[in-house]
Amino acid sequence: MSFIVSSAPTGRPAPSRRPRASAPLIRVSALALMAGALPWLPATAVAQQAAAEGKTPAVALPAIDVDTEFAAGGMSVPSADGHLSSQAIADRRTATPDTAALLSGLPGVSLYGAGGISSLPVLRGLADDRVLTLVNNVPVAASCPNHMNPALSYIAPGDVGAIDVLAGVTPVSRGGDNIGGTIAVTTPEPQFAGEGQGMAVHGDVSTAFRSVNNGTTVGGHLSAATDRYVVGYAGSWSRGGDYARGGDGKDVNSTLFETQSHTLSLAARVGDDGVLEVRGGVQYTPYEGFANQRMDMTDNRGTSVDAHYKAGFAWGSLDATAYWQRVRHAMNFLEDKGGSDGGGMPMNTRSNAEGYTVKADIPLGATDTLRVGSEFHHYALDDWWPPVGGMMAMMMGPNTFHTINGGTRDRLGTFVEWERTWGGGWSTLAGLRNDTVWTNTGTVSGYNASYAANAAAFNARDRARTDANVDATAELRYAIDDQATVDLGYARKSRSPNLYERYAWSTGNMASSMITWNGDGNYYVGNPDLKPEVANTVSASFSWHAAPAADGAAAPPAWEIRLTPHYSYIEDYISQRLLAPVVSNGVPFAKVMFANRDARTYGVDLSGQATVWRDVRYGAIGLSGVLGWVRGQTVSDEDGLYHMMPLNGRIALDHTLGGWHGTVEVQMVDAKTQVDRLLREPTTPGYTLVNLRGSYTWGDVRVDFAIENLMDKAYALPLGGIDYGDWRAANYTTPLGSVPGPGRSFNAGLTVKF
């Protein structure tokens, strides 16, 4: 899908920049994926320049919006500091309707396998609720006991304007209540018409096809703008069947899906330098299979409204958002798992959320900037399972099972942050943050008398909890010269338990088997006495790049490389303790209770890129690569943490000539042998995949094509969990293994702008 990405804050002139390529752009930044890369430095540089010219410092685009495309030849490859180029993102949109998959290829990022549109991003071994996900400044949490509806499933890839990924040592101004980092997704900025231009109408339509699952995506955007107002619409629809695995081409059961989303927006200029934008959206997923879960999604309806205001003032800038969200979610069995319209095991969830965020940037002079902010997030959740008729009524009836009844999780956060440029190549950032989190839930009940003792014990105890969490960040950057930079960082970050971790009360086998987002088939029980996780993270980042162009051109360097080791010690990491072993259809599983245990993660990221050849007649050739290694283990017994990506890397060779852009990519993953023994995590063998991608743009028309997994390699997803869907479809008669990866896929896409 195609759309226009704003290159400057709405309401002020665009800064002088080099010409852009004709293809639509998405800018994805991950400066802090290299932990210690300081995404706030360019704002100070702009303030210094403005002060030197005797002007009021304007609020500049943050470094997270730096475009990584080469000026000459339009070359665009992942840069060494963790950026994923616009061209790489555009190529991947044809291959997937899953927005989280756009992050593949960034240093330190991997994906939990889940549904077709519901992958969970992993930042240096930490994922799900340990990563704060923002969509248009709004925090979004999964409202499901199996986390089938994560934040990024609510926005289609074609609706993305920019994605910022920050891991490890991240500024306190980028959000609290997380220990893994922040992923911030925004839609494109409103595009106002020029003064006196009259009405301007823009739009695009696009479609894509993927052979591996007969998948189809259709989408479009339309906007009408004057110099004061913009009205816009964005819509997307995607559907895919069970995908074919590599090697033998057999379908992987429970991987089908269908989803659609629609958004209306209205933006208006407020005064001389302010913009107010109001958005309302609906998302509907009638079904989505989950190969690594006992259940499937049989309905998900999300509704949201948010208002965003930003403006510049003589004293600095203000950015404020208010929002409201509602989710209605249902699980049951789809056909692959023996489901039917009239039976199964219905499980329902509803949630409501509302809140605000307010942030202010206040330049204190040519070298100092102060940032302050406040945010509040109210979240209410109900999770209940209606009684089942027929043969299962004795076990799952005659009453409604209440898992979470009137659960609430409220968070109030405040922060202060100070940035300073000292001169001589030295810069610092320091911040302090407090997040107070209140959780509670009402009384519960089970299907019948067999649950009475569990429910009575839970109802009799005090369930209200208050956590006062304190975060702090300190970062130091030293530019040795114009070719080398060293970044050092430390962060203390905290996360309070989610409602299921604290309040999933039943120890029964059936009920506890429904509480899991690891895709491991195990049985989970909540623990009201859980403490918040506290991660102490240190990192260093070493960057080298070619000298700037002699003529001062703004093009990226001819080569760059970045090495980032990182280490985190996590106090009270929410892990598990064994309650009892469980054998299901001859396969051993574990029944566990969420429990605090100290843990640690450590690893290294290496990334780089180079322009290896450039010619006016034959175009430009670029080479890029990413290598990542991470380990996670509990401190007491050095058991592996679940879903740690093994050693992995990507190498890509790009060619650009005029409107043509082509890529040959090789992805390599080592065998997964470091696993969580308590949760019986399966090991997986290593593999190598080859992908080919190409696109050509003629003015307002773009054609994409690709072959993913060119050699049709058979492999298992290292973070995909167990292949429950195929095991269930075989009536539990085949061995229970890991989820197979997709086989060879021929992809094609077409985008027309008008």
CATH class: Mainly Beta
**Helix-and-strand structural type:** mainly beta
Q: Give start-end ranges of low-pLDDT stretches.
A: 1-83
- Counting DSSP E segments of at least 2 residues, the number of strands comes to 31
Family: Belongs to the TonB-dependent receptor family.
Membrane topology: Multi-pass membrane protein
Protein name: Iron complex outermembrane receptor protein
Subcellular location: Cell outer membrane
Could you please describe the fold and organization of this structure?
- Residues 1-20 are annotated as: Disordered.
- With 754 residues, the protein is mostly beta strands.
- The protein has one domain (27-753): Maltoporin, Chain A.
- The chain has helices at residues 41-52, 86-93, 452-460, 499-503, 509-512, 724-729; strands spanning 27-29, 109-112, 120-123, 126-127, 131-135, 138-139, 162-167, 181-186, 200-210, 215-225, 229-240, 257-270, 274-288, 296-313, 316-332, 347-363, 368-385, 401-423, 426-440, 465-481, 484-495, 523-525, 533-545, 559-584, 587-615, 619-634, 648-657, 660-669, 687-698, 701-708, 745-753.
- The strands form 3 sheets. It has a 22-stranded antiparallel barrel. A 5-stranded mixed sheet has the order 1-7-8-5-6, with no helix packed on it.
- The two termini are 13 Å apart.
- Mean pLDDT is 87; it is low at 1-83.
